[in-house]
Amino acid sequence: MKPRPPTYWPTACAELAASDPVMAALIAAYPDCALGNRGDPFQTLARAIVGQQISVKAADSIWARFEAEVEAVTPQRLASHDPQTLATCGLSRRKAEYLVDLAGHFVDGRIVPARWKRMDDEAVIAELVDVRGIGRWTAEMFLIFNLRRPDVWPVDDIGLQQAVALHYLGGKRPTPKVLRRHGERHMPWRTVATWYLWRSLDPQVVQY
Question: Are residues 94 and 181 in the same domain?
């Protein structure tokens, strides 16, 4: 089933299209908005760690073995596992340690998803990057695809860099400073602008 877009999506599209002809063209060209919610926060973050720097196919295979090993992918189950045992699922030792560290953050209350609704984006990012193996880019993808925050602009994302270069800068890759400044024109709907810029490069709907 196609996921329902966030409630803010129509307003964001209307305002972006009215203020930027490039956005207007992209929004018209790609009516298949499907910014889904990835569900359980712990499993979403665990999947992000498992999938780092490997193909989607490889990540799916390792995840299946990992899920079979722990039986239930919950913080309580995972926190009690030895990283060496998890490594037998195809995980690197480092990723296994990251997963156990993530579980520990949930178990001891350093991460409490229920309070994210009251926290701004930077506060959530700060909480997530305190986990070993989660950097700013992963935290921003979580804000976009799990929390579906409306104004995320991931300047370290290669796809966003390529799309802005293609549509606005004559093919020249922007520096982080230039990209950050460019994003100001899309506020307060930078997530939506990012989604359409990604979509312009990829025949498949982007999802993490």
Answer: no
pLDDT in tens, 118-164: 999 999 999 999 999 999 998 998 999 899 999 999 999 888 999 99
Our count of domains for the chain comes to: 2
Question: Are 91 and 161 members of one domain?
Answer: no
Could you list the residue range(s) of the whole structural domain that residue 141 is in?
41-145
Task: Evaluate the omega torsion of the peptide bond into residue 188 and state whether it is cis, within 30 degrees of 0.
Answer: yes
Q: Are residues 114 and 48 in the same domain?
A: yes
Distances from the Cα of 193 to the Cαs of 2, 5, 23, 67, in angstroms? 20, 14, 7, 35
Model confidence, pTM: 0.86
Could you tell me if residue 167 is left (phi over 0), alpha (psi between -120 and 50 degrees) or otherwise beta?
alpha
Kindly report, residue by residue over 165-196, the tens digit of the pLDDT: 999 999 999 999 999 999 999 999 999 999 99
CA distance 123 to 116: 8
For residues 34 and 5, what is the distance between their CA atoms, to the nearest angstrom? Answer: 6
Report residue 82's pLDDT band, with 50, 70 and 90 as the boundaries: confident
Of the candidates 73, 68, 71, 27, the one whose C-alpha atom is nearest the C-alpha of residue 49 is 73
For residue 125, what are the CA distances in angstroms to 62, 85, 95?
26, 30, 20
State the Cα–Cα distance between residues 191 and 156, nearest whole angstrom.
14
